[in-house]
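INFO worker-7 received task bundle
INFO bundle size: 2
INFO processing item 0
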Amino acid sequence: MNTYPSKLLENAVIELSRLPGVGRKTALRLALYLLKKEVSEVESFGNAILKMRKEILFCERCHNISDTTICPICANSKRENGVICVVESVRDVMAIENTGQMTGVYHVLGGIISPIEGVGPQDLTIERLILRVSGGNFTEVMLALPTTIEGDTTNFYLFKRLNGFPVQITTIARGVSIGDELEYTDEVTLGRSILNRTPYESIISRKS
């Protein structure tokens, strides 16, 4: 049982330890670090976090995070608007953007189908995706989901839902190892997987 010389310090440690990957010891180090800083620096830190939480928006088109109702990627007229890349999370958008190989736009699902965790299609932005594709503005839907069982399940579900539209459905090449999350894949490997994407139907054929 940890004892603290100050209840204020203990409360700070408790709140910091709620962050993912941050245990009590790390939280204590962070709290003591902040305690050494000028009040103005800590206020600036706290205000930035609070402002982000209160004012950040989600793009009305792709569900990426943004400071405006339409994110800079969707608003960029130089993007290849005929290609839409479907990803699990905002982190994946950032990872793919860092490769410099994606010139189209995105659609963030907000997760992947996982019956074990109680996540079904209705919990994701799949219907919004179907609505976007049905508008007839896209020629290719690129599935860039994790190479996991859940990711494959979501890919197959999306393929079934999108197969009736006049679009090519592709998936990133398996340069990304099985079981890998896109955000942890190095930029070169991820970039090559995007450039070497293949028709999803060929993946199904190989599994049949």
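INFO item 0 finished
INFO processing item 1
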Amino acid sequence: MKKGLLIVFSGVSGVGKGTLLDRLMPMEDLNLAYSVSMTTRAPREGEVEGEDYFFVSKKRFVEAIKNDELLEHARFVGNDYGTPRAYVEQQRELGKNVILEIEIRGAKQIMEKCPDALSIYIVPPSLEELERRLRARGTEDDETIMKRISKAKKELKDTDTYEHIVCNDDLDVAVEEIRQIILDEIDKQEEN
């Protein structure tokens, strides 16, 4: 059995990563496993422990770093996020293609440690559309939204380390583009 792919999936906050993943995950030909991240942020309404994130205390997060339990970790808008190593390695050994939804600093850590990782960055059609989407979520105040927009402007200038950039302007088109990128990588792996 071939070891599964490691797929780094990033994009600015509000670009629609979750919606894209909701469409991609059930596609059987992609054989995806979602890597659940650890975070110190509070759960949003409807988020489920162990499915959306592992919600932990700051103390537990620091302990995970010290014990080298995380493939990467980063602080984003006042909260810590990290990728648990054991789950990712287990799924890849089972032949699953593990998709990591992580922010850009964490993605760079992964790409340095795992040069074979497939990297995909999702961009919005415009910053105006991004702001509209963030406001439509209704989960954050104006100050937090403006922090996210400011961070997005900086991040969008720093995406050159990613192999693939996909614009999420039309959801169906973006889903198909990402699907094809993953299938092409699976084909390459099977040829080797």
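INFO item 1 finished
INFO post-check item 1: The chain has one domain: 6-191.
INFO post-check item 1: The beta strands are 6-11, 32-34, 37-39, 53-55, 70-76, 79-84, 97-101, 118-123, 164-167.
INFO worker-7 idle
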